Prior knowledge:
Elements: H1 7-16, H2 75-90, H3 101-107, E1 115-119, H4 127-130, E2 138-142, H5 150-161, E3 167-173, H6 177-188, H7 196-209, H8 218-235, H9 237-244, E4 249-255, E5 262-266
Parallel strand pairs: 1-2, 1-3, 3-4
Antiparallel strand pairs: 4-5
Amino acid sequence: MSEPVSDSRRRFFRLLGLTAAGTAAGAHAAPYGLPTGAGFPPGGPVPPRGWPYPPGPFAESGYAGIPDEGPVGSPEEALRRLIEGNRRFLAFRSMPVNESPTRRAAVSQNQKPFAMIFSCVDSRVPPELVFDRGLGDLLVIRTAGHVADRAVLGSLEFGVAVLGIPLLVVMGHERCGAVESAIDLIARDERAPAEINDVVEGIRPAVERLPGVGKEGADRVIKANTDLSVERLKEIPIMAEAIGQGKLMIVGAYYDLDTGLVQMLRS
């Protein structure tokens, strides 16, 4: 029998909202959640490369009439595409941009994403949906509270140095559980359990930038955390060189859970 969970650990998990009841999967669910008999995709083992799937459930939606986009020409154009995609998402007018069979075939051979999104792992903030983007458009890296460790930094550097991505967006979001928990634990001078404490320590500089701010001021800390991330990333030599050459733009952003709006914080 395991030992009782400490009060601080129980409070921490309650703050993160990790106490959740399990849900049972539907007994008759077909692959990808489609009803049995839908015929797409077919059940059974994965078909061989090039096997033609039957028409999908969106065949009559005008899907095939939306062209694939070409490459972006500048960081500013990349940012414009993201903003336009978010406005479509905001207005419930998302489109299957860059999701055609032609696009899938093209990006299967190589990739040229036009933007990197470094954001929180929160399940309510999926960047591909928030920015209404398709296959091969975004290189997405996510950690709790968008805390950057060496693997994250190396991945972002790879995006700039190897893939030549012209835009990096660091995106925080409303009601971030990681930030709210960090504020609470730091105020109590307590540690989070196990490696979760690394997340708290990663957010600590933002909490200490705004001393005395409680959970009621969490949005200010969330935005400060994003600002600090942007400042740090701009100082990395690979990033700084690309910025100086006009090949890279790094901006902070804030996602509103209630409206779906992404607000750009700084460039």
